[in-house]
Specification:
single chain, 176 residues, mainly alpha, elongated
């Protein structure tokens, strides 16, 4: 049992850091291409593919280290641990990104949201627009964005781990 705990920590750390680094590289690429405000669909799909791949390979690595056995609970633990580590690193990077690399990121995002709102609803009264923008600004605070980021990362990590765990599950033999 001690070997499993060490393996879980090692795999979660390695694959969590890998997932974070790949996500950061993708974010830097989107910044360089200037699509970090209006994220195109392909960027979201690529991020999802990276997340699925890293979490699935992490779970597979744990199964390999565990003599080919994997319970659903272990898969969920591994996937959530990978996601948590990646999420924490991503939050730290986003803090650096929003404060030093692109300090106008929040304002650009709010301006983009206003433009989108006006395009979709050209007859919207100004007070409704202002109210919606004030609400959006509250959700764009660094603490709230960080909390939502961690929650979303864990949620998707759970879903990915659940499906991967169900597909790769192989319970160890039970003693008689």
């Amino acid at each position: 049992m001690e070997n499993q705990t060490a393996s879980l920590k090692k795999i979660a750390l390695n694959y969590g850091v890998l997932l974070a680094l790949l996500s950061i590289v993708l974010q830097v690429i989107s910044y360089v291409l200037d699509v970090h405000i209006d994220r195109p669909w392909w960027l979201t799909v690529l991020q999802l593919l990276i997340s699925v791949s890293v979490i699935v390979y992490g779970i597979k690595a744990f199964k390999t280290d565990n003599a080919g056995f994997l319970t659903l609970g272990q898969a969920l633990k591994i996937g959530l641990a990978i996601s948590l580590i990646a999420g924490i690193i991503a939050v730290v990077f986003n803090y650096i990104f929003m404060n030093y690399i692109d300090p106008d990121f929040i304002q650009k995002t709010l301006d983009f949201s206003r433009e989108q709102m006006l395009e979709k609803n050209p007859d919207m009264p100004q007070e409704q627009i202002d109210m919606a923008m004030n609400m959006s600004a509250k959700f764009m605070s660094p603490m709230i964005m960080s909390a939502f980021s961690i929650i979303a990362t864990l949620f998707f990590g759970f879903i990915i781990s659940l499906f991967a765990g169900l597909a790769m599950k192989k319970n160890p033999p039970q003693p008689l």
